[in-house]
Design goal:
Shape: globular
CATH architecture: Orthogonal Bundle
Oligomer: single chain
Number of domains: 1
Radius of gyration: 18 Å
CATH class: Mainly Alpha
Distance between the termini: 48 Å
Order of helices and strands: HHHHHHHHHHHH
Number of helices: 12
CATH topology: ABC transporter involved in vitamin B12 uptake, BtuC
CATH superfamily: ABC transporter involved in vitamin B12 uptake, BtuC
Structural class: mainly alpha
Strand content: under 5%
Largest sheet: none
Amino acid sequence: MLDDFLVRATLAGLGVALAAAPLGCFVVWRRMAYFGDATAHAAILGVALSLALSTSVFTGALAVALMMAFAVSALSGRGYAMDTLLGVLAHSALAFGLVAVSFLKGVRVDLNAYLFGDILAVGQSDLAVIWIGAALVVALVTWRWSALLTSTLSPDLAYASGIDPKREQLVLTLGLAIVVAVAIKVVGALLIVALLIIPAASARPLSRTPESMAVIAALIGGTAAILGLRASFLWDTPAGPTIVCVAAVIFLATNTVTRLKRR
């Protein structure tokens, strides 16, 4: 079954959607979209380093994404405006990554595959990495769900409950770095944050509890992956961007229906 590239692509999309959904909810609740953008852009530098050192792209992307996330956490609150800091780091990391790739000699690099994803080229080893990464993210978020939710709602309440919000921020940072590393092959560095945010934002008006929002976001992300791949196959369009387009249409539909019901 895994010899069929469409089956592998579908399973890869479902794995990324499963990993991105719960984290996407926290990104929406905490208004961390730009933070995710900076982490995703830094992954391109990780790709360049991994190709130069002949190591796994997943390893390089994960290492640099973690370094970027920890650097942002360390520099925040030290006299820098957060949006300015994230903007400088995100675009600098992307630019340095693209320049570093140009210096690689004897290595053929398809930048579009890393910027916008190449889900149809996912192999069985890539599929294993994606699902192992998704399982780690789901296990991590499930384990720290209560503490993450409390620190998201109110840092003061978290301190009163014996929870360190900074530690939970690091947990979220680790999960985000793993998602970036596994998703770069599927939707690319420029569209990872879209797959984090759009399903969660689509699920928000349909949910009554945080847990239901995470589940609905996973279902919407999986649906967008399946329908996006189908549309890409029928219309011969880029798979990664098409998946995000389908997710955007679902977002528009859910929010429009919700507004009409309220009226």
